[in-house]
Amino acid sequence: MSFREKTAWISLVSLLLVFGIYFTAVALAMAGRLQYSQTFSWFLHLVLAFVVLQVVLRLIVAKHAPLDAKVPADERDKLIGLKADRVAGYILAVGVFVAIFTLHLGAGRGELAHAVLLAFAISQLARQAAVITLHRRDA
Amino acid sequence: MSDCKISNQLRRLRFEHGEMTQQELAEAIGVTRQTINAIELGKYSPSLEVAFKIVAVLGVAIDDAFRYEGKPPRRR
Predict the structure, then answer these.
(1) Could you give the 3-state DSSP secondary structure of residue A16?
(2) How far away is chain A from the Cα of B1, in angstroms, using its nearest Cα?
(3) How far apart are CA A73 and CA A85, in angstroms?
(4) What would the pLDDT profile of A90-125 be if each residue is shown by its tens digit?
(5) Cβ pair A75:B31 closer than 8 A
(6) Nearest to A131 by CA among A123, A71, A18, B73
(7) Residue among B1, B2, B31 whose CB faces A74 most closely
(8) CB B32 to CB A134 under 8 A?
(9) Between 20 and 30 A from A139 (CA), which of A28, A97, A98, B18?
C-alpha cells in the first residue's frame, strides 16, 4: 500500500470518527437530551481532535516508511486527487441544494447549518473513499 | 485511468537493463513505484514527460518502449 493510500485511510477513519461523534451529539440535541448550544463546544473540540489525530497518525506512518513519505506526489497521485475532488464537488453541490430545501420544510438556521456541514462531511468521506478506490484499482 | 490504449515493454526492458526494479526506475525518474506498476499493467498512460524520462533511463527509443494500440485518427 502506497503512502498516499495510507494517508487517505487515515483521513477517512478520522473523518468518520469526528463527524460520527459530532452528528451523534447533534441528534441528541435535536432529541432534547443535550443543550443545542453545547454542540458548538463539541464542534471546536472535535476539530482540534481531528487535527491532532491526523498529525499523529501521519507521523507514525511516515516513521514506518520514511522513504515513501519523502517522495512528493507524482502526476498519477495528482490525477487521482483531481478525480476525487470532482466526486466531492458534485456531492457537496447536491448536498447544499438539499440543505437549502430543508428551509422550506420548516428547518431553522441551526438545522440548515448542520445540514450544510453534513453535506461537507459526506463529500469529504466520498473524496477519501475515491482516492483509496482509484489507488487500489490502478495499482 | 484504466481505458489505456498504449501498450508498453517496460517489464522486459527493465530486466534487459540490469534487472532494474520498479523501485529503482521510479526513483530514477521521480515517480512512485505504484505509478511504474500501473504503467506496466497498462492501467495508466504516463505523460510525455514521464515517458521520455523512462526511455532516457532505459536507453531505448520511445517506440521501443511504448506503442499506441488504438485506431488511427480519421483524416479530414
Answers:
(1) helix
(2) 7
(3) 15
(4) 999 999 999 999 888 888 888 888 899 999 999 999
(5) yes
(6) A123
(7) B31
(8) no
(9) B18
